[in-house]
């Protein structure tokens, strides 16, 4: 049997702690983050913010799924229609590329209009189509109905 990536819900603002604790237990865990500059009245600071709030991806065998509950901050797995959600290896690779800052380039931005269905293979999503919800400048929000997410795409 092959290990699969599952989506684990965590307590709010506990994603990185849960990831670290899981890795100490020998569980392959991944919490993708993005860098943001936060501004206070007296300083600026670079902070790492999870791309998937309150979620950590874990790769393990079906029989090992209960191991994660030995970690403080792990809440439950994400389910869809009574079955645990499994994330494809390719989708995890895409998240790693996004985190690493690898650019995804679109050749024609002018065709992205609200309500239009688009193929997302240009953005690294394998066999996914989405419906454009909103376009603003060089940003585009796309609804991925099958996954139940809205993705914000940054175009250059």
Automatic annotation (TrEMBL):
Residues 2-99 form the NusG-like N-terminal domain. GO terms for biological process: DNA-templated transcription elongation. The keyword Transcription applies. It comes from the Bacteria. The keyword Hydrolase does not apply. Keywords: Transcription. This is Transcription antitermination factor NusG. The lineage of its organism: Bacteria, Pseudomonadati, Bacteroidota, Flavobacteriia, Flavobacteriales.
